[in-house]
Amino acid sequence: MAPVNTRQVQPLKVGAIAQMLPLFAGFAANLLATPYIVTKLGLHDFGIWSIVAAIAQYAALSDLGVSRAANRYTALFHARGDVRNERGVAGVCALALAGLICLLYAILPFISGMMDRILRTGDRGLATSLLFAAVTMVVCGLVAKTLAAISIGRGRQVPANIGVAILVVAQVIGGVIALVQSPTLPNFAWGSAAGTGIGLAAVVTIIVFDEGRIPVGRPSTALAREVLAYGMKGQIQGGGEILWFQSGKVIAGVIVGPTAAGVIELGMRLVKGAQSFGSAASVALTTHLTRSYAAGGMAAILAEYPRLTRRNAAVAIFPPLLLGATALSAVPLWLGERHGAVILVVMTAVPGIAVSVSTGVCAATLLSIGRSGLVGVAVIISAAVSAILSIPLGYAFGLEGIVVAFGDWMIATNLLLVAFLQSRVQISMKTYLHAIAGPFAIGLCATVPAVTIGLIASPHDRSSALVPFLLSSLIFAAVYTSLGWRLGYLPRLTAAKRAAGTATVDEKGKESMS
Predict the structure, then answer these.
(1) Exposure letters 96-114 (e unless 16+ CB within 10 A, then b)
(2) pLDDT tens digit sequence for 496-509
(3) pLDDT for 264-282, tens place per residue?
(4) Rounded to two decimals, what is the model's pTM?
(5) Do the Cβ atoms of 352 and 416 come closer than 8 Å?
(6) What secondary structure letter does DSSP report for 218?
(7) Are residues 454 and 327 in contact, defined by beta-carbon separation less than 8 angstroms?
(8) Any residues with CB less than 8 A from the CB of 410 and at least 6 apart, and which?
(9) Would you tell me the crossing angle of helices 318-335 and 12-57 to the nearest 10 degrees?
(10) Domain ranges in the chain?
């Protein structure tokens, strides 16, 4: 067995920061481009595209979960110095993704009629074109993220995440350029797909430049079974996440209409951005805890669990709580109008998202010890219940009923999920609650004055929203960070610099961290 090449493994802090690159790039690009896209397409056509994209996301489930398994198994074999199986993981991923691509493009023509009935466009050709474009985006994104996950598993977080950042920006730019040429829905869809393809090429180029090549080996039957079994268990979690973030748009589109789907899409773009920033460390945490588990077993993870949970919660809940605290001014500043329905979507979803991202260490622990099936089953059951609840509430109360069903249930279900999942690994619920109590308390202290400013100002357009947004953001950040640093919940920059300064790599390729 080959020795472990720790020289190439980048530290946990570097990985967590690198994970922010594609999130920041994607969020910034979408934030800047969405008002223009909505203006050119109109809220109705924007809603149609959001429904198509949401349905296409379900196609991602047919990759057998290899994009999720790639990171865990590559990190595991890389930590053990098992080069043969490390390369075999990439081989399993390549075979599974090739099968996915063939399957999806073969069945798309047969489901276009159903898609047209959902969209109510009366144009089957339009529905087919939109579906093909959306699936092309999904496929390119899956391939790129799987390649990035493999590279991250080998400890190369920065180059892979730079590539994914380029992909998400290229996707947005492709759609905008297409709208400039011709402001039609099919043009926008295929422009976005072309941008995603260019982004995939960038990911491949960057990884090859960084590592010299993409090592792919022939997997053994036993390895393929193990990786795919883990992946399919994790894919259950993927299905749950899609239900959480995509089914609301589909249900709203069917019950209320495409415009309602567009409203949910606009609100969820902000919410999903906050959720993504809040959970940015989850990939790095999973890799870190996988290495801890490989080195010292469950005892090594339990020794870090309370500290990591408190620190993760303090960092993770900041973005969603900031969004909720500033939503009254952030939405009109972003879209140019008040859009009360979008504000409702944001403020209803934010509390549940804050609770969700605070559970990151619990989920990362189960993923790192190979029990992804537990996480997946729990997530998909809770997401399915929220979708079921939203249907009668949608018929009874329209858009508001759907939004409330998803938002309120997310808070309750995440607390239930943590209690269940931690019990499977003999961790008390008190450990989690004690760890997050402080961060949520300072979050509440920071939110109240920030929301009060928005209520008093009640902005209705960009000019009236700018000052309240800046003031409420400043107050929230000042209160949260000052209390967080004083109480020791947030990492201090000086400590981070000191840690970075003591991380050295000797000539023999052995990394030491103080």
Answers:
(1) bbeebbeebeeebeeebee
(2) 444 444 333 333 33
(3) 999 998 998 888 778 776 6
(4) 0.76
(5) no
(6) P
(7) yes
(8) 244, 349, 351, 352, 353, 355, 356, 386
(9) 50
(10) 1-235, 279-490
